[in-house]
Specification:
The structure holds two protein chains of two kinds.
Chain A (H helix, E strand, L loop, with lengths): L1 H5 L5 H9 L5 H16 L6 H27 L15 H23 L11 H20 L4 H23 L1
Helix pairs in contact in A: 3-4, 3-7, 4-5, 5-7, 6-7
Chain B lengths: L6 H19 L1 E8 L5 E16 L3 E8 L5 E6 L3 E7 L10 E8 L3 E14 L5 E5 L5 E5 L3 E5 L5 E5 L3 E5 L5 E4 L5 E5 L5 E17 L4 E17 L4 E5 L5 E7 L4 E2 L14 E7 L4 E7 L4 E5 L1
Parallel strand pairs in B: 2-5, 2-6, 2-7, 7-8, 7-9, 8-10, 9-11, 10-12, 11-13, 12-14, 13-15, 14-15, 15-16, 16-17, 16-21, 17-22, 18-21, 19-22
Antiparallel strand pairs in B: 1-3, 3-6, 4-5, 18-20
The chains are: A mainly alpha, B mainly beta.
């Protein structure tokens, strides 16, 4: 794969972390059917910008990963003085946090397109709990910014939040 | 002197009538449809209860009661695939709960969906069992080949002898028992996860939580993989003494423990990690937390 060639000269630690980021599951699987259905229902005169907005959640993680790989590439150590492969890379810290924040923004944008569930709706408390958990994981990621599993957990929480909001809206 | 005032008597009658009103308002259900022994049935009930039981007939029997305010019970499909759905009017928030009691062929594929719905499925052994609820609890006992069960705030109480099981909740706790030899996947946010395969070696186990605790008691198939992670929840893995796996653990601020393993801590800053090979190291176990404690026990 091209990506493998591109990041072949990255430090091993960063390379492994970026590879780990390539295994997102939920967004493409969970978001697409609904987005596709809504695209099908959308008026033909919908502007390209509007369609783009609707595609954003499905592309959120893909974009975030591009950012991650791009930043990883930009921030990679240069030349032979870069040190051993296991040397921690300062850029990795920034990379995962940037990805986390970009992803959060995209999911929030997708949520704004859905009707807000009433506070009395069953499951509403769980929406609040998911928000609080997302904030807790983001906080943890700020303290341990090389923990890729936290980024994946954050992505799962956002995906669950979006799916539950959609479910409550259609109930 | 006799008291002829009828008011107290009338009041009692009125109160009794009010108390009994919902019972009279609910509409009894009694329907039957043919369904192939390995057919598929999908059930949807927004609020109330769904109870599914297996029997040895090639038909489905639906009983129970339709809550006041529910529009109707819709049954569509043929003997290969049936859909049973409680229809509500557009603004059906004030409708009373509906109870569905459904007998299905033993090997039927079953899918049950609800929102404020308690779901209880017992005895089915089809290819697939899919259950989803939001605030209702779920009980499932059976031997479907594959099970996919989720809730949001309701607890999951599952006893399944299946090949693969995937369970998910937000705040509801998950208790999964049964001989499961394939893949197990469990995910919660604050709910606890307890998995016990009764000694059956799973080929793959993945659990993840944010603040919920997770425990697994079972075994690992040769060359199998276990991947458990949590943010602040504690993790406990109980595996057999003869475990053959390479085990890696890592935590930012949690406490790690594993028999014979040396826990490495950096000279400066937080963090702890270990890597240890047990037996021939055929399988792979990975444990990761942020602040939760993690323990590997070999029993």
């Amino acid at each position: 794969m091209n990506d493998d060639r591109h990041d072949s000269d990255l430090p091993a630690a960063l390379r492994m972390q970026l590879r780990a980021l390539r295994t997102p599951e939920p967004p493409a699987r969970e978001l697409w059917p609904d987005i596709a259905a809504r695209l099908a229902q959308a008026p033909r005169q919908a502007t390209p910008a509007r369609r783009g907005e609707r595609l954003l959640p499905a592309l959120a993680l893909a974009a975030a990963l591009v950012v991650a790989v791009g930043l990883g590439w930009q921030l990679r150590p240069q030349g032979e003085d870069a040190g051993p492969a296991t040397t921690p890379v300062a850029g990795t810290r920034a990379t995962l946090l940037v990805v986390a924040d970009a992803m959060t923004r995209e999911y929030r944008g997708a949520l704004r397109e859905l009707p807000a569930p009433a506070p009395a709706a069953p499951g509403y408390e769980s929406l609040l709990e998911l928000d609080a958990s997302a904030a807790a994981v983001r906080e943890a990621l700020a303290k341990a910014p090389e923990a890729t599993f936290l980024l994946q957990r954050l992505q799962h929480i956002h995906a669950r939040r979006l799916a539950l909001t959609r479910q409550l809206a259609s109930a | 002197m006799r008291n002829s005032n009828p008011l107290p008597f009338l009041a009692i009658v009125l109160l009794a009538a009010c108390a009994l009103a919902p019972a009279f308002a609910a509409t009894p259900i009694d329907e039957r449809r043919d369904l192939d022994p390995q057919g598929r049935i999908e059930v949807s009930n927004l609020k109330g209860r769904v109870q599914v039981r297996a029997w040895d007939r090639a038909e489905v029997r639906i009983t129970g009661s339709l809550g006041e305010g529910a529009e109707r019970l819709q049954i569509e499909g043929d003997r290969r695939s049936l859909e049973v759905k409680v229809r509500y009017p557009r603004n059906g928030n004030r409708a009373e709960p509906t109870t569905l009691v459904i007998d299905v062929p033993l090997l039927a594929e079953v899918e049950v969906d609800g929102v404020s719905t308690d779901i209880d499925v017992q005895g089915v052994a089809g290819r697939n069992l899919v259950i989803g609820s939001v605030s209702g609890g779920v009980v499932a006992v059976g031997a479907p080949r594959k099970a996919d069960i989720s809730s949001v705030s309701g607890d999951l109480r599952l006893n399944l002898n299946s090949r693969d099981v995937a369970v998910e909740s937000v705040s509801g706790s998950i208790a999964l028992r049964g001989r499961i030899g394939g893949e197990i996947k469990a995910e919660t946010v604050s709910g606890d996860i307890r998995i016990d395969t009764r000694g059956e070696p799973a080929r793959r186990l993945d659990t993840s939580s944010v603040s919920g605790n997770a425990s697994y008691a079972g075994a690992l198939a040769p060359g199998g993989r276990i991947n458990v992670e949590s943010v602040s929840g504690n993790i406990r893995l109980s595996l057999p003494r003869g475990l053959s796996a390479r085990v890696r653990g890592e935590s930012f601020s949690g406490r790690l423990s594993a028999p014979q393993a040396r826990i490495d801590r950096p000279k400066y800053g937080p963090g702890a990690s270990f890597e240890h090979s047990y037996g021939e190291g055929a399988g792979e176990v990975r444990i990761e937390t942020f602040s939760g404690n993690a323990e590997l026990a070999l029993d």
